[in-house]
Amino acid sequence: MNSFITNNEGIVLKYIVGTDDFSIVGEVSSKIKKVLKQLNIDNKLIRRVAIATYEAEVNVAIHSLGGYIEVEIIKNEIKIKIRDNGPGIKDTNLAMEKGYSTASTKARELGFGAGMGLPNMKRCSDEFKIESKFGEYTELNMKFVV
Amino acid sequence: MAKYWHSVTLEPDYCNGCTHCLDGCPTEAIRIINGKAKIIDERCIDCGECLKVCPYHAKGALSDNLDILKNYKYTVALPAISLYGQFPIGYDLNKVLNTFLHLGFDDVYDIGYAAEILSDYQKKVIKEDDKLHISTYCPAITRLIQIRYQGLIDNIVKLESPMEVAARLMRKKIMKEKNFKPEEIGIFYISQCPAKITSAKVPIGIEKSCVDGSLAIDKLYTKIIKLYDEIEVEKDLLKSSSKGYNWGRVGGQSFSMGIDDYIAVDGIDEVISVLDNIEIGKLPNLNFFEGYACVGGCVGGPLNVENSFVAKNRIRKLSQVAKEKNDIKLIDYPKEIIEWNQEIKGSDVMKLDNDFSKAIKKMGEIEKIFQKLPKINCGACGAPTCHAFAEDIVKGKTTIDKCVVLNSKKRRESNESV
Predict the structure, then answer these.
(1) Of A54, A124, B97, B167, which one's alpha carbon is 20 to 30 angstroms from that of B219?
(2) Domains present along chain B, CATH in parentheses
(3) Contacts of B353 in chain A (CB under 8 A)
């Protein structure tokens, strides 16, 4: 289930992302974008967050067995965590290289899998961490300074 | 001029408080209060969606009538390009333009010609930078971007519309050739839609429009077809080429500019979905975006009379038989005539609060209320969605007891407990 938690300091949004359904890719980033707009966050920052979360959605849909995106918005910072249920990445350094891709033919035919997703996320965010255990999970953590 | 002036209006006597218009409004600008639809001025973009869906014709567009011509010594009609799609093939469109001379106008300018100038000018602007350029031809879309897509404001092509360019050229010409003072000249747009009427009154990007007023096509149509049979052609008024006429339909601008990496989108819902995708970077490598609130482009404007698909086809045919292009020299059309000179600002209306902590607090309250609501978006409370209703409650504009579903649930429960 998607969830929405607020306290005095900020908001935590959690969205479940499925796998292999390209038609709904982009919905989560659009929802996040709408929330950020209502909170009067700078447009250029919203754009960066939206692009990064969209790339993350694409990745979860193409490569993973499903997962979730969690967004934490506090006064000076937006933290985004993307965690999937595997299959994990063998070599994260290689995965971060521009143009490296393991995407399926199906995904490539749809215009995805150019090997730019992770580098794009890194470029858009102010802090970027990738962690993966092959056979288990991948977790990305991004930070954006507000 | 008031801060928010809108051409789209509501006639309370005809409104029976149904929820048709609520649903279709792209900026959630309508609420039903005490059984009558009300427009939230700062949210309305004059797209005219509510006009199209209202079964009781309670929504209208404020336009001028022919009496206004009496206030001026020399008057000019600027008929929208979509007018050319309102007459069956075989009609002499030059004669159609001549009917305006009998409606009381002293002169008529073929806006298609101004569109052609803009085609060349805009192409030059687009070629200078390979970023995404968003057309401002449809003022409803420009206003939509100001309200909902502020991250795209920098991508807006800051050029005037053919209407404004035509008005400026005509005013200059008449002052020079006929020796009239600026205030003695009245220039009127013959409009296909409320958004254009609004943009003549309260323009974006410039301080004041050169257009003095607007008359709706549907209000003049019967007069035009009657005059058509009675009059003789006096002047050669039809000046445009294929490039200009094409601006009357979706895709026409891109076609006229002869560019490749563009998309042309019509219908407000489709435009919204494409702009959403552009904002998240889903549509890279685009050079030009032309979006229209109405299906078909300007031929779909709610103040036209002909079916938009028929009119669109006629414009297509017209552009096939018209001459390919006029000999336009851009050097004759300086920046002051073509470009906007004011900054385009985003609107704050979708923001919960300018203070971040307050906005967070409000968002939490909205979510809490929203969770209690039925989420079926029935509209019976007067708000378009349960979420908009929750927002209105937090803003203090309504109360939760307006939710009929919750009320009936409460009644049921209290009956059961008895």
Answers:
(1) B167
(2) 1-62 (3.30.70.20), 66-338 (3.40.50.1780), 354-418 (1.10.15.40)
(3) 40
